[in-house]
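Sharing a chain and its predicted structure for anyone who wants a worked example. Both blocks are below, sequence first, tokens second.
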Amino acid sequence: MAASLVFRLHDRGPELVREVLLERGWEEYNEGEREEEDWNLYWRGSLFQTSQYHNLLPWQRLNHHPKTVGITRKDCLARNLRRMKATFGSALYDFSPTTFILPNDYTCFLAEYNRLRLARGTSVYWIVKPVDLSRGRGIFIFEDIKDLVYDCSVVIQRYISSSLLISGYKFDLRIYVCVKSFHPLTVYIHQEGLVRFATEKFNLSSLHNLYAHLTNTSINKFGPFYKTEKGRVGRGCKWTMSKFRHFLHSQQINELLLWQRINNIVTLTLLAIATSVPSCPNCVELFGFDILIDAKFKPWLLEVNYSPALTLDCQADISVKKKLVSDVIDMMNYTSTDSLRDRAYRKHRYKQPCFKANHPSAPVLSTLNHQKKKRGNKGSHTQILPLLKTSHQPEKTKRGKLKQRDLETDISSLTPDTQESEEVFTRPAASWKLPNIYRYCKFAKWNGQNVPPVKVGDFIRTFPFNRATLKASQHELDIRTVLQEIQSLTGQLVSGKGHKMKSRREEKVTADKDADTDFDSLLWGPKDPPLISQFFKST
């Protein structure tokens, strides 16, 4: 009997995740019917406790990496970007508006406010956001400091008053980013996303009109003009990214450069926390990056969302989010059945309190911490676990082997997370090291290194994007090398001289040109993203 794949949802949601997983043949975890460790995926919108990472078993995945609050909380994001700009300069880290954290930075803010007020002939506007609230709650905009009133920790930013408008309406982009691993850093961006509109025309003379200045759907869906036609925007307040691409075609701009700059924002932001996030290969995380484009087509990072909303408010949501969730599940590398969990539960005697990940034929389950789950003689070190609940029995073939039907398929089995090693997996409370859940997969390799696939569903791998960044991320992350490669790629797109694109490191290995075919990346953003190698050869 094959073990069914089981998912847990915190507080019964999000409903879309349940719907997608049930359609794929999964079963939902029932506390009354299953053992506490009898699940494969635990999905929640809030933070996991540290102990939940420490106690992960080899067949279990979580939908959040530990300690990513460094970019998802507004004040932490501001501090980390400020640190990166001070360390590596403002040439690359110029995508975030001037930001202050109040009350701590009030004196600095006041000095900047007075300086700009005296130096500039035009008005300067500021936007205030509570550091730990979402969905547009508590946000307001002001010009005169007498209107600055707050009763909690807030971030205050220069308000981008020259944003790009469509039919007079402000908008921003919700970019969906999946971080498959922080060690080594492996990043994917989804080809589809959302364009979120304000529902009243942009007007700086009415700063208190949230329907004109905020793009949050949770606010605008209650606006008086939400269901009315709004010029080219149409009804509602959302487009798909595909529709936005059609709009860009009508603009006389370098579209590929715009997409690359957005891609750079994602990578540079993740670099700010990559070295501080503990290694946890059993985790995959979906972030929502909110990007605003100004009138000069420069993209700005507004914030990074932890657990971006998966509610379905309109047809654009349905078109984008269902496929998005399905692709995230594919990114988690599940096989047709959970043989690892199945064997561990079916083995009746566990004499060693460890899991030897380098011997897949005979997995050994770590002694569980929950003593109430133990069965048998209390004085014995042998632990007997119950059989797994199974959903259906696959049909047997003539040779007696099981034929699997209607079970979860593995379409991303080439996706590695960590390097192979001979380490033995144990579960000490003080350690973050977990087993490599992709150890049994056949990896694509370049020069002896594991290479994550170029594409998983509609997710495009955006980091690493060439040989130099692959090498720079394999062991201790070499941020300076990564920044040099980002500048090199972006510079070639600015100049349009793609056929000359070679980093200094790549020039040293020109004799090994054929090896490039084993490692390539797509240029994320366009409808039909080209391979970097082919694009620069053809320009």
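Comments welcome. The first helix runs from residue 15 to 23.
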